[in-house]
Amino acid sequence: MSQPAVSQRSPLSIKYLRPDEVRLHLSRDPRLIVPVGTTEHHGPHLPLGCDTIIVERLADDLSAEFQVLRAPTIEYGVNAATPEHYPGSAGVRRKTLHRLLNDLVGAWEASGVEEFIILTAHGQDPHQEALSTLRTRKARVRTVDVFSIYPEGDEPMEVPVHGGALDTSLLMYLQGDLVALERAQDYLPSRRIARRYFSGRRGAIPKDSPGSLGRPSQATAERGRQLYRFIYGKIAAALFSS
C-alpha cells in the first residue's frame, strides 16, 4: 500500500506555477487534483475548516508523490442544514457549487486537462450530486468522498461523519493543535436523523445536538494516523498507481 508522501518533492500547486510550467506538466500527465472543502460547524471541538484541511493534505501528499498538478482549494460546499446560524459557517447551494465547478472544469479542460480527480470530505447527497454531475467535452471526472473509504469494523457509515470519531481523529493526527477534545460531546443520531443528514433535508443537524454527530470522545491521533494511511493508500492504488 502506498504511504503518504514524505519525500523532498513538493506539491505541484498551479497557484504557484507559471503558465508555461503548467503546460509542461500537463504534457507529461494531463490530470488535475481538485480539493473541495466546506466551511461549517462540526461541533464545539473542531475548526470550521475541518473537511477542507483533510482534503488539502490529501491533495498535497498525492500531488507530491505522483507529481500530478493540484488546483487551488474550493473552500465552500453545500453545508448541512442547522437549526441556527453558527458564527463563521458559510456554504452555497447545490446549483451554485455545480455551476462554479462546471465553469472551472471547462476552463481547465480547455487548457489541456484530460482527467479531474475531485477530493471531498463531505458525504451529503446535494454536495456529492453537485460534484458528480459535472459536464466536460471529453475529460474524465472522478469524484472521491474520502469518508466513503474506511477500514472494516470502523465507525459505520449509517452514522454520518460530522464531527464524530473519524474526522476528529484525522484532524488530531494532521493538525492536533486545532482540536479541543475536552469540548467534544457525543451524540448518536437516530436512523431518521441520519437519513435526513445524508439527503440534505432540514433537520439534518438536530437542535438538541452539539452541532456534531457521532462519538468524538473516542477519537485519538493514532487512530487518525492509521485512518489517513488507509484512505491515502486506497486512493493512491485506485487512481494513481499504474
Q: What is the averaged pLDDT score?
A: 91
Number of helices: 7
Count of DSSP E strands? 5
Secondary-structure arrangement, i.e. CATH architecture = 3-Layer(aba) Sandwich
Task: Please outline the helices and strands.
Layout: E1 12-13, H1 19-28, E2 31-36, H2 50-66, E3 69-70, H3 94-110, E4 115-120, H4 125-132, E5 140-145, H5 165-175, H6 191-199, H7 221-240
Parallel strand pairs: 1-3, 2-3, 2-4, 4-5
Write up this protein:
It is a single chain. The protein has 242 residues and is an alpha/beta fold. The chain has one domain (12-240): Creatininase (Rossmann fold). 38% of the residues lie in helices and 9% in strands. It has seven helices and five strands, in the order βαβαβαβαβααα. The chain has helices at 19-28, 50-66, 94-110, 125-132, 165-175, 191-199, 221-240; strands spanning 12-13, 31-36, 69-70, 115-120, 140-145. The chain has a five-stranded parallel sheet with strand order 1-3-2-4-5, with helices on both faces. Helix 2 (50-66) crosses helix 5 and helix 5 crosses helix 7. 43% of the residues are buried. The mean pLDDT is 91.
Features:
alpha/beta; 242 residues
Quick rundown:
The chain is of the alpha/beta class and 242 residues long.
